[in-house]
Amino acid sequence: MIQGCIFDLDGVIVDTARFHFQAWQELAHELGFEFTEKDNERLKGVSRMQSLEILLEIGGIKATEEEKKALADRKNQRYRELISTLTPQDLLPGVMDFLYQARRLNKNIAIASASKNTPLILERLGLSNFFDAVVDGNKITKAKPDPEVFITAAKELGLVPEECVVFEDAVAGVKAAHLGGMIAIGVGTKDRLPDADINILSFQGLRCKHLLEQVQNKIEIY
Ligand code: BG6
Ligand code: MG
């Protein structure tokens, strides 16, 4: 029986994925190459330093460790500038209602994100103390697709992986959920997230009870 809902942060509960993209794209332009939305899919869910590695690979650019650190810092500075304007209005449509539904059904709720900026984002959204557990890039050492972030979140909720369902917008995140033994709900089309067990396009109008029943059916089929 599903007892816990674990949510990725960027691109699942809040519309920050576009700011990550913008900041990386500006950096790519400064470095003299194009960086498209399609390229950006590869960066979703992965850590800042790994994202930079992928970006540099796309641009065919070699850099020393020191230069990489400076580039990642520059991207993060720009990203923090962009997210400084976030307000609770930037929660994705239907998210708050869905979280309250989960609460009413006595489900535990957690955030599991690769982002080291998670505390700042939750503060801007007025959700610093809302979740039963928050596991972020400051707490974990292995980035998605490693399942560490989800396994830690389940543990912090006092649950086993089989009792949790993960909400993810990244290919790497769906993979991490599966490696952790959890059902993955893909927030995005089947085209973009072909391996998700169930795909939703948004939380708007979504009935938590109904969705969890669907998850339960999947578990029984598997
Ligand atoms: C993930 C994003 O949530 O966090 C990635 O999907 C990002 O795009 C990663 O690289 C790390 O974020 P931050 O805020 O620590 O640079
Ligand atoms: Mg995400």
Instruction: Determine the oligomeric state from the structure.
Output: single chain
Write down the secondary-structure element order. EHHHHHEHEHEHEEH
CATH class of the largest domain: Alpha Beta
Q: Could you tell me the mean pLDDT?
A: 96
Shape: globular
Euclidean distance between termini CA atoms: 14 Å
- Per DSSP, the total helix count is 9
| The CATH homology group name of the largest domain | HAD superfamily/HAD-like
CATH fold naming of the largest domain = Rossmann fold
Brief synopsis:
By secondary structure, the chain is an alpha/beta fold. It is built from nine helices and six strands, in the order βαααααβαβαβαββα.
Topology:
Layout: E1 4-7, H1 17-31, H2 37-41, H3 48-59, H4 65-83, H5 95-104, E2 108-112, H6 118-124, E3 133-135, H7 148-157, E4 164-168, H8 171-179, E5 183-187, E6 198-200, H9 208-221
Parallel strand pairs: 1-2, 1-4, 2-3, 4-5, 5-6
Helix pairs in contact: 1-4, 3-4
The protein binds 6-O-phosphono-beta-D-glucopyranose and magnesium ion.
Give your account of this protein's structure.
The protein has a six-stranded parallel β-sheet, with helices on both faces. With 222 residues, the protein is α/β, with parallel strands linked by helices. It has two domains: 4-15 and 88-221, HAD superfamily/HAD-like (Rossmann fold, 3-Layer(aba) Sandwich), CATH 3.40.50.1000; 17-83, DNA polymerase, domain 1, CATH 1.10.150. Helix 1 (17-31) crosses helix 4 and helix 3 crosses helix 4. The protein contains nine helices and six strands; from the N terminus they run E-H-H-H-H-H-E-H-E-H-E-H-E-E-H. The chain has helices at 17-31, 37-41, 48-59, 65-83, 95-104, 118-124, 148-157, 171-179, 208-221, and strands at 4-7, 108-112, 133-135, 164-168, 183-187, 198-200. The protein is globular.
